Structure formats: C-alpha cells, structure tokens
Amino acid sequence: MILLRSTIIILFCQVSLVIVGQGENDSTSPKDSTVIEYEHFLEVVENSLNEFYKENTSTDNKTDSIIAALGYDENEVPQFSDSIYCMRLGLMNEKSPFHLDCNEDVLSVIDYFARKRRRFTAVTMGRSALYFNMFEEKLAKHDMPIELKYLSVIESGLRPQIKSRAGALGLWQFMYRTGKMYGLEQNSYIDERMDPELATEAACRYLKHLYSMYGDWNMALASYNAGPGNVNKAIRRSGGKMTYWEIRPYLPRETQGYVPNFIAMSYMMTYHAEHNVVPREPMINDFETDTVCLRDGLHMKVIDSLVNWDIESIKALNPIYKTSYIPKDEKHRCITIPVSLVGKWIEMEDSIYALDSIIYETLPEEEKEEEMGSSVNHYVRSGENLGVIAERYGTSVSRLMDWNNLHSTRLRVGQKLIIYGADAPKQKPKKEKKSDSNDPPPTPTEGTIYTIQSGDNFWAIAKKYNTTISELESLNPGVDSSDLKVGQKIRVK
Question: 258 lies in which domain range?
Fold first, then answer.
C-alpha cells in the first residue's frame, strides 16, 4: 500500500499542476467572484435545508420533552407494572394489523429489553435515521404494515453488512438461495443482499407472499424466521391450529421467541422516551445523503485521496460492495454520497477518473491486481486454522468466513479458500496458534483511551473525537476496525 499511496500523491500533484496550468491560460480564474458568489449561495441554501430537515424529522425534541416531564435522572431506569405495559400494547394494537398480545412471554421480553438492552435500542434508533424513511416508503408501496420496519431491527440491528453463522446476510438477513429467488444477485464485487433498497424491496415481496399463504402477520413472521416448511409442520403437530400462539410450542426454539422479540422491540421503539432511552446520535441522516452516477469503474482509494471521503465511510453508505473496487455496472451505476461532498465530487470528477486510469496503468501488475480485488486460492494444510491463514494474508478471520461462506471456523486439510485482494502472503507463516478470534485485542498503554461500546465503529469514534479513521488506525496498529469487540480499548489521541 505504501507504493500505491506514493503513486497517488505523485500523480495527484501532476494532475494538479495541469489543472493550475490550464487555469493560468484561461481568461477566467477558477475562483473568480462569480464562482465564489454561487458557492456561497449554495452553501447557505444547503445549510438552510439541512436545518429544516433536522427540525422536522428529529425525534430528539419529543424525547427530551417527555423525559423532562417525567423528571428522570440521566441514568435512571424506570420500571412499570404489567398493567401499564398491557395498556400501551393495547393502544398500539388499535393502530396495527398485528396481534400485539400482552402475555407472560411478551412481558418477559419487554422487561429484558427495558433493563438489559437499553443501549441496543438507543443505537438502533440512531441507525434508523438512515433507513426508516426508505423502509416506510417501500412498505407503503406494497400496502403492508408500517410496523414491519422493526423486523429489520430484530434481524440485523440495522447493520447491512452483518452476516449470521448460518450465512444469512444484510438488513433483512437473506440466505443466499432465498435472496436469489427474490432477485438478489452476487458476484466477486457485489452482494445485493447488502444493498438496503434492493434487499428491502425483496423483503417486502417475500413477507407479502408469506402473508398471502397464512392470512396472519404473526404467522408470516414465524414463517420468515423458520421457513414455511417448519410452520406447516407445527400446524400439523398442533392438530390444525392456525394462529402463532397456538402453534408456538411446536415451532423451533428460536422461532418461539421471534414474535415476542418483534413485539417487544416494537414497544421499545414506540415508548423509548418513557423508558428514559435517548436515541444515539446518527452517523448520518437520510436527508444528508445524495447520489452521484459513475461513468466507469473506480477504486475507493482514489476517491479518498481526491475527495477526502474515507473508504470505511464509502462502504458504510454503499454496503453492496465486497471489495474496495466499484465495478462498472449499469444496474449499480450510482453510489450514495454525503450531500456535503457533492460539490467536491463535481469539482474533482474528471480528475478522479483521470487519476484512477493513470494509477492502474502504471502500477506494478501485482499491486494493480490487489486493488482490483483479485483473488488467490489457498489450500488448507495440516495444522492451519483461520487465524493463522488470516494473519498470513494480512486479512481477518471474519473476512475469510465471509468470502468463503463459512458457517464455522472448522477447516479440513486440502480445503480450498478464496482470498480477495491478495496475490502472495503478506508475511511468512508462523507456528500454529489459536484463532485470532480468541486472541485478546492489543491494549494501548498511553494517550487517551476509549472503551468500545455496542454499535461503535471507527467512523463514529473518529467523528466523536474530531479525528479521522486513518489517524485511529495509525494509533492502533494491529486492531481490526471491522471486528471491534465490546469492552475492547483503543487509543483515540
């Protein structure tokens, strides 16, 4: 990567000199008074729009007023009687086609969420600022209950790149075959199960189909989790019962808790303020994003170097991409970008394509292939495990599992693993050791120390401490930013 970064800097300087030279021969300076005037105008308009959207979409004011009216201290955890929970669920039921039953199982989960999962509710409410409006638009389009937006909270915690042990992926946790059945494709560079809009559209179609079979939304939820086959078996074993609560004892254990979890999460998202839960500050709101359409494939490192939009942030808004290369693809021509960077993108657009083209024509072939997301095959040898292999190729265990659709860390001798963005081992293999996933993360001993909390990532932490992701990475060598663990300590200054 050192060679690549040096190449970018040198070529960027060359491109800059050309641009400056062109400006000197032009009768109009690139930053004449007219340009300055319209840039100032656009800045005023965009700031005004941003404030308008914040005032009219934020739940913070309502939350703050409720908490203030109830007189809660900052860390107070309110407790309510079962009758209060049932009364609130009754009010929700009046506006919902779901059967939001108030029974012992539901009350138990609500109590658990209200006491033990408060931070999860706060974090997911912060993430919802980027997704819920889109969810509601899709659900309304299909004439489906708006409450289904909470299903993604249960499925993925609103993390589009999360993958389950079973291989389910994305906001709506599609298995590969189910996703493909509903039009979600994948190749070496993209996986549409991680695309928020495409996956939400597919989830709406799938849930609508399940509802058409059972005529009951709770049954549709059970079928979404366990599959129609397991639901039909439960119906037979129950003697022909046709409601979720009647067939629940005959469903798989996970599905027995699925609908109560959905009801409890719907309750917490509705009554979070009454429980003194303040939504986490969103990394970005949906109204703070826009799109730009590409005319060719691009590498995220080049975008970062010219637009100052770091790779982690690019991937956070465009989770569909499996590598740091954005391929030329008519179906996925446009990418999501922060509104604040649109002006910079337009200003540097020609330079981005020019620099990208120059770099990948002049780089040594092996480094070019690495950036293009090339792959190598590794055949497991005796004594190797995922931790050893990940270290050898300079990647992480989670990425190896993701690339190879592994559901466990078990390997067999001779098994073939695909490793992207690699042509040769980054370092000589070391003696066998336990998997990286079991090794304690490195602990910093100086500077300002921060303890990782649920939902944290380098982007949010960098924003909180007014620094950059690159700076955090340099302060924490050996820390995998894609695999942070709650309680892990990192240096932020």
Answer: 60-74+82-275
